[in-house]
């Protein structure tokens, strides 16, 4: 299992041809208190960079993008009832969706942990 | 840090304190302001409703409009009131000593150029002067407008040498009265000039922008930081940023100029008809009187209302409001999540005929219609000490 990161602060943890996607602790901290999460429908096909979910803090709404091409196979409905999980456990319990990868080669364009940490330092 | 045009951001007298407290800073109306402190918007919001919050509102525009000589009793008050009454629809001449009046600066079409607070001094020897507080984003144009109206009759002195601190919440009375004895005796929308050994001459005004009981304290710049630190040394007080200030005022149904109010909107449309005093209606002598009086008589084409989404998704500024049948009837001007309400809430304008609380509407959020209904304002009851 490998975890990759995007410049838009999503993480994707890949096992076989399925990736679990969420937003990073850095992003959750920047957003502040999350009060609403909108998730995509299962079966939806997305291109890398497409709008995938919406996360709203008290102050503002932010888009969450698909890190790579894929099809939604599961959405974490617990976030709908408990959006604060995004602040409490962003990189584990508060995963947003499971994505069946349709173009796994794209993963090589994403950052690994060390590269992402360096990227956040520069933000 | 710079804003567009590379003008350096202005700093309030509490700027160093905000940074020291770990605030996340951001630009607001040309100032580098605290958006939130480390505890975050939700905790700050809830603390203000439960205990007492300290807000730096020094970016706003306090000023004094004064006759060349003050102390002339009611006649002097009438003379200085006549100047400001040429710009606003409220009865300022009739204001009792020590009282504050919320009002609006109007253009010749009756559109709102800003909302402002106008205060009549309590002391007999201070008559002929008004203490006025305008919004941060509009203060340059407001000051110019007031100066123009005052030309040859009175002078406007900007209180740029002061800080303005708001202390809001159920514990505010005990907190402020301990530092400025007599503050507890003020009722809502009253102010006093108080001379304090520790903090110099201050103006303590019982008002605010949260729906809670509380005060705004005008203090000389050199004492502002010490006063803020003294307030924060009280366990009941925590610093609150602009993020929570916005969620608190929206729950209280209060307008944010430039969003819920603008130059194309009349007080009647803004559901602020109560600012148009009876005596001024009779005299019809304020800017845009013809339009405003005709709207009072026959109704306005649209009105500001509260809106409650029935789901959990907030509907923010710019969201279109439709009827169940899909007809566009208005737009959201402020929206977000209300921590005390524990639900999303919005404010906006809808066409006449759709303003009654309980009326079902659709909010078009990210292209999808969401169920909502028109709601009474405020969303959270005010707790003013009247």
Rounded average pLDDT of chain A: 96
The helix-and-strand class of chain B reads: alpha+beta
Question: What is the beta-strand fraction of chain A?
Answer: 35-45%
| Major beta-sheet overview of chain B | 6 strands, mixed
Give the number of DSSP strands of chain A: 9
Which geometry of chain A do the CA atoms define? Answer: globular
H/E topology pattern of chain B = HEEHEEHEEEHEEHEEEHEHHHEEEEEE
Chain pair forming the biggest interface: A-B, 14 and 20 residues
Q: What proportion of the residues of chain B is helical, as a percent range?
A: 10-25%
Number of helices of chain B: 9
Q: Can you list the strand order of the major beta sheet of chain B? A: 10-11-12-9-3-13
Describe this structure in words.
The complex is a heterodimer of chains A (123) and B (386). Chain A has helices at residues 25-31, 78-81, 85-88, 113-121; strands at 2-5, 10-15, 18-23, 34-38, 45-46, 51-57, 61-65, 70-75, 97-101. Chain A has 123 residues and is α+β, with helices and mostly antiparallel strands. In chain A, the strands form 2 sheets. In chain A, strands 1-2-3-9-8-5 form a 6-stranded antiparallel beta sheet. In chain A, strands 4-6-7 form a 3-stranded antiparallel beta sheet. Chain B is an alpha+beta fold and 386 residues long. Helices cover 23% and strands 31% of the residues of chain B. In chain B, strands 10-11-12-9-3-13 form a 6-stranded mixed beta sheet. Chain B has a 6-stranded antiparallel barrel with strand order 14-17-16-15-18-19. In chain B, strands 5-6-7-4-8 form a 5-stranded antiparallel beta sheet. Chain B starts with 14 loop residues before the first helix and ends in an 11-residue tail after the last strand. In chain B, 50% of the residues are buried. The A-B interface holds A 32-33, 35-36, 38, 54, 56-61, 80, 83 and B 35-36, 40-43, 45, 243-244, 246-247, 312-314, 316, 336-337, 339, 344, 366.
